[in-house]
Write a structure and sequence with these properties.
- The complex is a heterodimer.
- Chain A is an alpha+beta fold.
- Helices cover about 20% and strands about 35% of the residues of chain A.
- Chain A has a seven-stranded mixed β-sheet.
- In chain A, strand 8 and strand 9 form a beta hairpin.
- The longest helix of chain A is centred in the N-terminal third of the chain and has 27 residues.
- In chain B, a hairpin with a 6-residue loop joins strand 1 and strand 2.
- Chain B has a two-stranded antiparallel ribbon with strand order 1-2.
- Chain B is about 65% helix and about 0% strand.
- Chain B has a domain of about 230 residues: Cytochrome C Oxidase, Chain A, CATH 1.20.210.10.
- Classes of the chains: A alpha+beta, B mainly alpha.
- The interface between A and B is large, with 96 and 119 residues.
């Protein structure tokens, strides 16, 4: 049965399609089963899990997206920090963040426990949205609007690091997200924590 | 094509026929490859000394510039030139065949060299500060894209010559039966090379035209097609590396092929599914939907992962069985304890298998999961993963192969022999520290490709935990140790090839300085090897079969895999709800 013992450097003679030893078959079977588990986890998480990168995705002209961001800023601006507008949109609204070399605009002020649709896009080149210190990361591409439903689960003062190389000033590109605990007073709409 | 006058010599060690033209091309490609390794390693030292925040050596401009140089020199020029050497070697010397088109082969070499020099000149001259990936609309000088195209065309021609060599060898009856498994593995690497280079043409030709202002290239489409080149080229490395695992196993300890059917089927799975790997890089991109991401990132239900898990069993099991057939039959791990650990070919092989599997493989599959990628994308976990695959895995295997190519092809003794015996441990040890600490730093959200994580010039502070500073210092120490290993390798290779002692007469059974033990003590099997093999496969030995030690090892691996995978899901479940 097991004839022609040889190394991988030698040509196998005759027909090499022979049955494998049981131990080898068992390992292939276990490895296959594990691969199915690896695969099943992804659809399962879409169904039961809370973190998926699906979002609402559409093409957009970079200039049009930037104009929409400016409109959003005018609508909800409450303050400025270092010349950058701070924007406090009501819970449940669509919010816009534009990445450009080398800044994120605007600063977002959100409420803990409220859902928003965060639209990400870039004005010029690829950027990387990396929320510090939560460590949540998305690719931001000019010409594409990535609308992600987000629900902050903790209050605090967060940062947005750019983690896609966008030019020599890449490391200076930092934005800011503020998440507040209590529902803001006087906010119209569906405010409040669930 | 009529056979030109070809000059052959017979290898005194393996008794195979070696064509002089093929041998020259193996040599020249290997030499250029080592030069690229040297350039890449110098850049690596400067980069790690910059990311070590306490040292912070380079300016921002030179940091990003040299990061590009490091990527192209290592991942493209070092590895692809070496793979060209592997293709020439596998399609000629391993099967007693000749190189069919020497002039075309030299032409393609010059094309590749010209392209590589052009790319390096553009990068060093500051005309291509776009990093390895050159995502449009970041713009480099058109000459940069042209250089890559020339290089790729040259590599494509070599792949064609490789297939032609095999066809002619078959027709001229240079070998009997099927191709050896090692050559079969090289064939799969060559097929994946063709797939990869076609993606390369599909992206770099339009990008070249875009850089001249002649057409538009969509940034998302660029990312998708570019990664058909960028990730698939890493699958060439995997296939070539696994072929070299089988080769080094055979050369160093007489590793046998457990079952040709299983090993070859695993190689076929690579060809069928591995070019879907582009998706790994687009999991948190806006251009693709979840169904596309899930199907592609899993190589259609993890069939390529299955292939690697199969090789991860058959390679060590073949080594174990090879040792047992040579009489090392005691207990579970006597074969491993009594293996030639002082042979740099053997230690490279084992270190390559272990670090590739345990660090590179487990982290790669985990971070390439659609949702887990949210907490990984573009952090230091990504380079932490691929340095474990492509450096500790592929580069380590190529270095191990070089310790045998120096005597077998260059007919020289390995210089600085004591240093060569240490080199794999230093290189792999450094890389092990480097990749693990990088992965750890990345889990704090530390970005990759970043000059300054103290954000001293940024409008807002980002107060990373002091632990991160410490971990980045460890990254630097690991990186410098690995770079030391790389410089040792370059010194050994250059000194052996250009100034080395001729190999001279080999007396079988007598150890020689500068000659690996697989050559002085060929691991031949006894005449009754088939009977011994049958006994080791006997039903009485039970389910553990002919390689019980390996069974234990692969289950340790599986346990580590399962643990790491589910810990990552747990960590993901703590972050904000996103959908």
């Amino acid at each position: 049965m097991h004839t022609e013992t040889h190394t991988g450097l030698e040509s196998p003679k005759g027909i090499w399609w022979k049955p494998a030893h049981k131990s080898e078959k068992v390992w292939v079977g276990i490895a296959f089963a594990w691969c199915m588990v690896l695969f099943a986890m992804m659809p399962l998480w879409h169904w039961k899990g809370g973190q998926n990168p699906s979002g609402i995705r559409r093409r957009v002209e970079p200039a049009a997206f930037f104009a929409r961001t400016q409109e959003f800023i005018q609508q909800y601006q409450v303050d400025t920090d270092r010349g950058m507008p701070i924007v406090a949109p009501p819970p449940g609204s669509d919010i816009y963040l534009t990445g450009m070399s080398f800044q994120w605009t605007p600063i977002l002020k959100l409420q803990k426990g409220a859902e928003y649709i965060l639209h990400l896009s870039a004005l010029d080149v690829n950027h990387g949205f990396s929320l510090y210190p939560i460590n949540v990361n998305f690719q931001v591409i000019p010409g594409y609007d990535y609308g992600l439903r987000i629900t902050p689960n903790a209050s605090g003062d967060f940062r947005i690091i750019c983690n896609e190389f966008c030019g020599i000033g890449h490391h200076t590109m930092v934005g800011r997200v503020i998440v507040e605990d209590a529902p803001a007073t006087g906010t119209p709409g569906t405010g409040g924590t669930p | 094509m009529t056979a030109p006058a070809a000059t052959f010599r017979t290898c005194p060690v393996t008794t195979r026929r070696i064509h002089d033209q093929a041998e020259s091309l193996v040599k020249i490609n290997a030499v250029v490859s080592v030069v690229a390794l040297l350039i890449g390693a110098i850049a690596a030292v400067l980069i790690v000394l910059t990311r070590w925040q306490a040292v912070h050596l380079l300016s921002a401009t030179w940091f990003y510039r040299l990061l590009g140089v490091h990527g192209m020199s290592m991942l493209i020029f070092f590895i692809v030139f070496f793979e060209m050497a592997v293709l020439y070697f596998a399609s000629t010397a391993l099967i007693n065949a000749r190189l069919v088109a020497p002039k075309l082969a030299w032409f393609s070499f010059l094309l590749m060299l010209g392209g590589a020099v052009l790319v390096e000149a553009m990068m060093w001259g500051g005309k291509a500060d776009v990093l390895f990936t050159s995502y449009v609309p970041l713009r480099a000088s058109p000459a940069y894209y042209l250089g890559i195209i020339l290089f790729a065309v040259g590599a494509l021609i070599v792949t064609g010559i490789f297939f032609a060599n095999l066809v002619v060898a078959k027709r001229e009856k240079r070998y009997e039966g099927s191709l050896p498994l090692v050559v079969y593995g090289a064939v799969t690497a060559a097929i994946i090379t063709v797939i990869t280079l076609l993606h390369g043409a599909a992206i770099y030709i339009p990008t070249f035209l875009w850089s001249l202002g002649l057409m538009h290239v969509d940034p998302q489409v660029y990312r998708m097609v570019w990664w058909g080149l960028g990730h698939s080229s890493q699958q060439i490395n995997v296939a070539a590396m696994v072929a070299i695992w089988y080769m080094l196993g055979g050369l160093t300890i007489g590793a046998v092929v457990l079952n040709e059917k299983i090993s070859r089927s695993a190689f076929v799975l690579y060809v069928l599914f591995i070019s879907m790997a582009s998706a790994h890089h687009l999991l948190v991109d806006p251009g693709m939907g979840p169904a596309w991401k899930v199907v592609n990132t899993s190589y259609f239900m993890y069939m390529a992962v299955l292939a690697s898990m199969i090789h991860g069993f058959t390679v060590p099991a073949g080594m174990e069985l090879g040792m047992r057939l040579r009489g090392y039959t005691n207990g579970m791990f006597d074969w491993l304890r009594r293996a030639p650990w002082h042979d740099p070919g053997f230690s490279s092989l084992v270190l390559s298998v272990v670090v590739f599997g345990f660090v590179g493989g487990i982290t790669g599959v985990t971070i390439g999961t659609e949702q887990i990628n949210i907490i990984v994308h573009n952090t230091l976990r990504v380079p932490g993963h691929f340095h474990a695959t492509v450096v500790s895995g592929t580069a380590m295997a190529f270095m191990g192969a070089t310790y045998y190519l120096i005597p077998l092809v260059f007919q020289k003794r390995v210089a600085f022999w004591r240093m060569a015996q240490w080199q794999p441990y230093i290189f792999a040890g450094g890389m092990f520290i480097f990749t693990l600490s990088m992965t750890f730093a990345g889990s704090f959200g530390v970005p990759r490709r970043h000059w300054d994580i103290t954000f001293s010039q940024a409008p807002f502070d980002v107060p990373f935990s002091p632990v991160v500073d410490l971990v980045l210092a460890v990254v630097a120490v690991g990186g410098l140790l690995a770079a030391t290993g790389a410089f040792m390798f370059v010194a050994i290779a250059v000194a052996s090839v250009f100034f080395g002692k001729p190999l001279g007469e080999i007396t079988k059974g007598t150890a020689m300085v500068g000659v690996p033990q697989g050559i002085t003590h060929p691991p031949v099997h006894a005449a009754d090897v088939d009977a011994r093999n049958a006994a080791l496969h006997a039903p009485g030995r039970g389910i553990m079969g002919p390689a019980p030690g390996t069974i234990v090892l692969v289950f340790v691996f599986l346990a580590a895999f399962i643990l790491y995978f589910f810990v990552n899901w747990k960590i993901l479940s703590f972050v904000w709800k996103i959908g």
